[in-house]
Amino acid sequence: MDLSFETGAFLLLISAIVAMLVRRLRIPYSVGLVAAGIVVALLPFSPQISLTKELLFTVLLPPLIFDAAFQLNWRHLRADLSPILVLATMGVGLSAVVTTVGMHYLVGWQWLSALVFGVLIAATDPVSVIATFKEAKAQGRLLLLVESESLFNDATAAVLFAICLQLVLGRVPTPFGVSAQLVMITGGSLVCGAAVAGAVLLLMGHTDDHLVEITFTTVAAYGSFLLAEHFHLSGVLATLVAGLMLGNIGSLGVISDRGREAVETFWEYAAFVANSLVFLLIGMREARQSFASGWSAIVIAILLVTLARAVAVYPCCAMYARSSLRVSMRHQHVLFWGGLRGALALALALALPADMPQRESIVRVSFAVVAFSIFVQGLTLAPLLRKSGEIPRAR
């Protein structure tokens, strides 16, 4: 079933009630939403909505990415761009390798199935990561590292996942083909985002109407994403570039002062709505997912994904141990435990071809890993941040 206006309004009502309750209970909003989604799914009048790749990519993901990118300071991002890119590329690759090898030898999955799962679960999910860290009120360099890595590493996962799908279809890509695809997806996505943002900035320079400025940013967010996806590129990377350009170049006077305030308020609300729907739909899908079989595979997968995240974070950060870009061990621990998985992994798993070997096992295990990420890591992240001194202790 598609997300109708009536259903959307009902889910937003649930979201607003959950938002009030979690503040009183002092639990993460994302955790409360997933729990509420599970309860809603068990009701006799529960709406039958599927969390599909199309719904996530076409409707819900662009505002989340754009809002995060719009608020990123390019000067600060540029200073830490090297470790961020290493984590988002080498880190994702290392994580995928560890998970793939472990699922093959410890669970007995075919190499192809293990590789597909390793790739789709390797990247941290921008939706889950950004929502959780902002909710915990993390600030400074740590927030920049976490947000930026989760945004950039999706591009790496998109390339690797596209290669895996070629393998599923019986095509064997060459090293040259892999390199060419990497350059094409990265470069093409950058061009799409920059082109849309450039056109919008030119138009915004001729108006000081805040409503028109909001409209232009909406066109930039969705236009850059859909344009990149149309050409089989990375919509996340394109929207990231568009958000960065509008947020940083726009602050130089292209966007009026009143328009800037209105745009930030609008996208804060848009991100709240998208976040609410994403986590509610995850909870509703989790409630309908059967975990009755394959418990050993689920437990092993959770342990492997956790280990793989450690392998992705600590060696990559060690490369900067003797430089001015050194990442403190305290920050590394938070990067490790804060590497949450969420809707992106589920959407990719559900988008696998029906004849994919062990597809149902991949979907089931992916949902279990995401559930662990949200409930266990999500609930313990704020205490970890308080213990590390990144956020004030609760009174």
Do you know the CATH architecture?
Up-down Bundle
- Stated plainly, the CATH topology is called Na+/H+ antiporter like fold
Structural class: mainly alpha
| Binned strand content | under 5%
Low-confidence stretches: none
Task: Indicate how many domains the architecture comprises.
Answer: 1
Our measurement of the CA-to-CA distance between the termini, rounded to an integer number of angstroms, reads: 45 Å
Could you give a short account of the major beta sheet? none
Helix content: over 70%
Rough outline: globular
By DSSP (H or I, 4+ residues per run), the number of helices equals: 16
CATH class: Mainly Alpha
Radius of gyration: 20 Å
What is the tally of beta strands?
0
Structural account:
The chain contains 16 helices and no strands. By secondary structure, it is an all-alpha fold. It has a single domain, classed as Na+/H+ antiporter like fold. α3 (53-70) crosses α10. The chain is globular. It starts with a helix and ends in an 8-residue tail after the last helix. The mean pLDDT is 87.
SSE topology sketch:
Blueprint: H1 5-25, H2 29-42, H3 53-70, H4 74-79, H5 81-107, H6 111-120, H7 126-135, H8 140-168, H9 175-204, H10 210-230, H11 235-249, H12 257-288, H13 295-318, H14 329-337, H15 343-350, H16 359-387
Helix pairs in contact: 1-2, 1-12, 2-12, 3-10, 3-11, 3-12, 5-6, 5-8, 5-13, 6-8, 7-8, 8-9, 9-10, 9-11, 10-11, 10-12, 13-14, 13-16, 15-16
Give a brief description.
Helices cover 77% and strands 0% of the residues. It contains 16 helices and no strands.
